[in-house]
Hints:
By secondary structure, the chain is an alpha/beta fold. The protein has helices at about 50-60, 80-85, 105-115, 120-135, 140-145, 155-165, 185-200, 210-215, 235-240, 245-250, and strands at about 5-15, 25-35, 40-45, 65-70, 75, 90, 170-175, 205-210, 220-225, 230-235.
Amino acid sequence: xxxALLSIENLNKTYIxxxxxxxxxxxxxxxxxxxxxxxxxxxxxESGSGKSTVANIxxxxxPPTSGSVLLSGKxxxxxxxxxxxxxxxxxxxxxxxxxxxxxxxxHVLNQAISKSLSWxxxxxxxxxxxxxxxxxxxxxxxxxxxxxxxxxxxQLQRILIARCLLxxxxxxIADEPTSMIDACxxxxxxxxxxxxxxQSRISLLFITHDIGQAQYISDRVFVMSKGExxxxxxxxxxxxxxxxxxxxxxxxxxxxxxxxxx
Length: 262
């Protein structure tokens, strides 16, 4: 894709274990794809398929064995981390583990704004925090000043999205962001991510094992199995007309609301 925001080229990650019998595990094998400006791309596959490995490499949590990750054509490992994380932010699976329960939820927002808008005075920072909470659908008066245990999982995840937005990122990496919250909150988070895409043209890499969520939110989808991308394309085309047996098996494993009676 010409002028892609993010380009993944021949990405490989190999883990080596064992001393006597050395074992190689290929968590990512020649993974190649890109994400355009304002585009939602999903990585779909079973647990252990390599989706989170790719996400963690993009977020620079660990290096690839080989291959490259390019942001606007520049190797991300050559960019200063401070500059990179202002452009790329991550939303993770478990919102509960992202908080220190001895602090009020304000703490994660204050930490973020102290790095993203360090030159702004305290009164202005409070206004920015209130505004970004409004964007993610939270009432600042009912949210700030509370401890994490006083809020729901969906509210905690929204606060973490608000934290990301304080950096005004160009790309969000969302790794199973709805898997540990209730069904109603899942729909709200998906709709919030779509709103951010439409209103702010933020690009999104959405990682999930849930085909329904991927079909609902994605422009394009990449299906992963054993570290490799086995099928890719327009979301509806891939899910309505799959060509690979693995994708067909994934679709067949989705529970049906209908039950066959003998």
